[in-house]
Design goal:
Elements (H helix, E strand, L loop, with lengths): L3 H29 L5 H24 L2 H29 L10 E4 L3 E4 L22 E5 L1 H4 L9 H9 L3 E5 L5 H12 L5 E7 L3 H8 L30 H12 L1 H15 L16 E4 L2 E4 L2 H5 L7 H24 L2 E7 L2 H12 L8 H21 L2 E3 L2 H9 L15 H18 L14
Parallel strand pairs: 3-4, 3-5, 5-8, 8-9
Antiparallel strand pairs: 1-2, 6-7
Helix pairs in contact: 1-2, 2-3, 5-15, 6-11, 7-11, 8-9, 11-13, 12-13, 12-14
Length: about 450
Amino acid sequence: MRDPNRRARLSKVCRTIAWMLAAFGLVVIVEGVSKGGLRHRLLAAFIGAGFLLPLGVPWLLGRKWDSIRAKVLLLVGSTAVSLLALEAGIRLIRPSSFQHPEIMEHPVRGFSMRPNRGGMDARGFRNVEALERADIVCIGDSQTYGSSVRLSETFPVALGERFGRSVYNMSLGGYGPVQYLALAKTAIELRPKAIVVGFYFGNDLVNAHTAIGIPHWTRLQDPERTYERPLGASPHTPEPNLAMNVLALLKHSSKLVRYLHSEVSFRMKQSRYLADTYWREPGAPRYDGGNIQTLFTPKLRLGPQKLSSGRVRDGLRITEQCLIEMNALCDRAGVRMVLLLLHTKEFYYHRFLTARGDAAAGSLVDLAAAEVAMTTRIKGIAERLGAGIIDPTQKVLEALREDRALWPPNSDGHFTAAGCALVAEVIHEQLLKICPELATNTSPVKNR
């Protein structure tokens, strides 16, 4: 016979817990709707509402709750068991794939990713495995890393599939020419036929200036300038509100939550309807036509390319020296160095919009002019060195004229999967001309 007093006590405990969760949910909503960006505020409302459910559902259903309570509790219990089973499965199958990469200090590059964590290979790069030998090595920053795409969609992976050869991705967001020089020394150990260096005009020059604050690179410093040591493995950035702290705690505790968060975040970034929930440069134009929608950040991208800036001029000097040393390393090893020119999204769109007579091109004029001048200088350096040069500009413009979206609909300047595939296509076409020996004696494709 059931004890009615025990059932009453259990019911009271459940109501108390429900009230506590509801109170916490209200705190999350009230605190979060006024902090962070629009998507952070929306997330605060969503997470807070979740804490209100245990109290809100019985209240909304009223008398019906008593008749369905057992079924609801059974559903909740079975769902919890299923989630635990999924968590266990994820921990058994490729557990590192669903972790966030862990940043760490590096004496030469300033910072790196901890090996074998968060989808990183044994060297700390974004590959399925750390190859002992590769036909092509791609060096670069977040553009080469593929910050807006999955590993299987990055252009180094797409390049390997096109060539039918092994391609190794040796890149990391925040890197620049100084780190590229350091990476070239490691890349040569893989005995590649070509090293493709992705130079991104959006920030590489400033990154070069910043990086030589690392004590290892004092030889590259201008004795008449003062350099500060870069932050390296930067401390954790505080979350904008309590809801994001709750999410961070869940991600830290559960690989399932980390996986779901990465997938949801990826899909949110590709949504046209959520474009404005991400950062938007005040007064900057947007483009919305056909299948393409995207936001621009011309002021953000102009600063790192203005030669009137002492940091940019110094970065150009450092970049030239790094390219000289990289090319010398490659020559001694019998490896072809190829410079891949990756322009800003705004640079490509300026040409596209100008050809269409679109007024939005006017707000991109200053950036485009600065980038043209910088392109001339960087190409001039590569030509003097005899290095190969790959520029996907014409193919990108053709794709835009065909109404193909190569960037996310928000202000993100990293290529989408379609953009990465196009870059791989261009590299494949032009690299065969620069390095014809890549056309024969194919080796197995790896790191897909």
